[in-house]
Amino acid sequence: MIDTGQSFPLGATPRPEGVNFSVYSKHCDALELLLFDGPEDRRPSRVIRLDPSRNHRTFHYWHAFVRGIGPGQVYAYRAEGRHAPEEGLRYDREKVLLDPYGRGVAVPRGYDREAARRPGDTAATAMKSVVADLGAYDWEGDISPGHAFSKTVIYEMHVRGFTRHPSSGVSNEKRGTYAGLIEKIPYLQELGVTAVELLPVFQFDPQEAPPGLTNYWGYNPISFFAPHCGYASRDNPLDVVDEFRDMVKALHRAGIEVILDVVYNHTAEAGQDGATLSFRGLDNSSYYILERGDRSQYANYSGTGNTLNANHAVVRRLILDSLRHWVTEMHVDGFRFDLASILSRDIEGRPVMNPPVLWDIETDPVLSGTKLIAEAWDASGLYQVGSFFGDHWKEWNGRFRDDVRGFFRGDRGHVEKLAARFLASPDIYGLQRREPEQSINFVTCHDGFTLNDLVSYDEKHNWENQEENRDGADDNRSWNCGIEGPTDDPEIEQLRNQQIKNFLTTNLLALGVPMVLMGDEACRTQRGNNNPYCHDSELTWFDWELLERHAGLHRFVKKLIHFRLRVAPEAPGMSLSDLLHAVPVHWHGVKLNEPDVARHSRSLAFSVEGFRYWWHFMLNAYTEPLTFELPSLREGEASQWRRLIDTHRRSPHDFADPDEAEVVTESEHVVQSHSTVVLVADRGQR
């Protein structure tokens, strides 16, 4: 029996007697709700035509209540209307469409993206939505760890890549899955990270890739509410939802927060020659920004073919509802917004000062306790690092990455830049009176070289991507230390190891919030590929045998992370400018109080009178050793200097716990070429 149903809530909502369906489509002439017995079916078992004359349409919302069905029901839509691309209309009655608010997705074994691009019926080959009862899950009292940003270390990771490699030790059926990640939580605890930032886990289209390859990263969502089926160890779409929640619950029990890398700037439907999977077939001109001069063309601020119309009222609601869903129903702790600057563009693509969707997110009470991180740029040149909207947001600091790389490569004019990056970039954030944690610091991330490749390749090697090495960034600020690619030369291997430790020391001891890329703690390599988005293979997977091969580096990273969390200043409510005023910093060169900031300079030293420790940093990016004068400690205010870190030394002498570190009694200290030395003095003995 079919009843009128209600326009709210959107999506498929199970109730005791059946399921309420509601979907938005402003411009279509007719809509059909399709019920399937299974995702492989070539035709629906039931077609329910939503009839406006029978009150199945309220304003622009189509709805019906279907009795006798419940959770697990597979469904989809067909929309009829004019196919007039020049007017922004792309209706195609033959295409089976996902529900934009579907909480679960079923992917048939014969899923075919190309079929969604060609004329013809896609009932047998399309992804389909699944009715889910989200209230049935037992969270067992789950509570977010709620770490302050000042006590946060982020580990950027790929769910599949983390455990897919045979060396992971995870059972075959769980390798590369949410369940597999659960088995490796003890490793994350030992490493010391407090949050994992997961590359996209919204259901995406793995076939949006060059021939013979797969879309591995997942930056091409097709559902903003359903977890990706391909990362589950079980096939049932409802089990996929619960397995994701099992993972979140287990991470929380281990004291680790879950941050999702979310893509609200484009979808997998791509450009004018792309696939009709959902949004394009329901209301193309509402969901996407179209070119003003030619409505058949998609604005492409994302660089991927289309741009989501984020500040359209309906899309704004979808984004906010999606975020609330992942917080309230899936218990995630925060979000990193891919190409977040696109969200500041209006419905015609122009940047605006007060973007409605960002206001919605900024002021939403459900999201008030979450971590919000912006990648504050887009693919069309809009760069907002230091000027992104609102008070809630933190920012990926791309200038930290570039300037730290430039200094340790020996580039000219980077001493003052490095000094600013060490202190949470006061030149970028100081005037805003924002907290030091406004800056999310990173040297590497998924997009670009791994840390090992950063010191092993001068140029990108992306030939396997089938784009003639044109894709990926050309400006990597990398240095191969003398030989391109792998080498057995012990001197070059030593130099590369030093450089890696230089980067890690700077990233994990600088003010701000550090982010570490999966596998950098064990020299993971992608063989010089700086854009391996299309490789689901050992090229991108974490090879766990590297941990034994690079045990010294692994130890170094663990020591650094645990030490950082132990000494990170807790100054709630204190702005960066106030903190730098309260904590004196003294700048030096090889001679005290004489910093060398000339363009040709490659060295820096500075002292910090911290709350618990006094610090003295000496960084030498020259090819020869330098002798630095050491500041005297004022009697009664701090103990003697101890050498915490020397990146030139081999493990375990590269990092020593402060209480066990070697005492430095001389008035000078030699810092070897391409090395960093950090001294500490305990103020607790005053």
Polypeptide structure, described:
This protein has 686 residues and is an alpha/beta fold. It has 3 domains: 2-132, Immunoglobulins (Immunoglobulin-like), CATH 2.60.40; 151-269 and 305-567, TIM Barrel (Alpha-Beta Barrel), CATH 3.20.20.80; 583-685, Golgi alpha-mannosidase II (Immunoglobulin-like). It has 15 helices and 27 strands. The strands form 6 sheets. Strands 13-14-15-16-17-18-19-20 form an 8-stranded parallel beta barrel. Helix 8 (398-409) packs across helix 9 and helix 12 runs parallel beside helix 14. The model has no long low-confidence stretch (mean pLDDT 95).
**Binned strand content:** 15-25%
What is the CATH superfamily classification of the largest domain?
A: Glycosidases
Strand arrangement across the biggest beta sheet: 13-14-15-16-17-18-19-20
**Which shape, going by the Cα principal axes?**
elongated
Q: What is the helix content?
A: 10-25%
Pick out the low-confidence regions: none
